[in-house]
Design brief:
Helix content is 14%, strand content 38%. The protein contains 1 helix and 12 strands, in the order αββββββββββββ. A hairpin with a 5-residue loop joins β4 and β5. The radius of gyration is 24 Å and the shape is globular. The termini are far apart.
Length: 155
């Protein structure tokens, strides 16, 4: 009887070990992709000044709830071309947005201004109800895992 119990226990351990080996090691991690590209800054209207590359911010936001995923400040290369690159989650809808540094992290939800606090979560400045939906807009992108997608932005 002890021998039968021992065989059953060893068999269960072997089956469990095989099952663990079948699960990919990174199954719980979120796969990333890279969004990169150039930024076109047109000439400013008379009396106004066009922003420089260092005065802009590229934000990636989740298209489901508009929360901030990633943010980067573009850099000008040797030729003076304004370029950016940032990591985004793969297999989800992502919005890319270009804006001046002073406006980064501010958004409007249901007519109320929302300020982003240190953790990247939003706190409404007035009472509002947030609705969850995905807006498929020209700025909505889907990335494959480990994809490096080139997306040109313009100010």
């Amino acid at each position: 009887m002890v021998l039968t119990f021992f065989r059953t226990a060893v068999g269960a351990v072997v089956v469990f070990a095989i099952a663990l080996g079948a699960i990919p090691a990174n199954a719980g991690t979120r796969e990333l992709a890279t969004a990169q590209g150039t930024i076109a800054i047109p000439e400013a209207r008379p009396g106004l000044r066009a922003p420089s590359c260092s005065e802009l911010v590229v934000e990636a936001r989740d298209a489901l709830d508009n929360h901030l995923i990633a943010v980067t400040q573009p850099n000008a290369d040797e030729a003076g071309t304004c370029r950016y690159a940032l990591s985004v989650p793969a297999q989800s809808a992502v919005w890319l947005r270009l804006q001046p540094v002073l406006a980064a992290g501010v958004r409007v939800v249901n007519g109320a201004t929302v300020n982003v606090v240190g953790s990247g979560h939003a706190r409404p400045s007035s009472g509002s109800i947030g609705l969850r939906f995905t807006v498929i807009a020209p700025t909505t992108y889907f990335f494959a895992p480990n994809e490096q997608k080139t997306i040109s932005l313009s100010y």
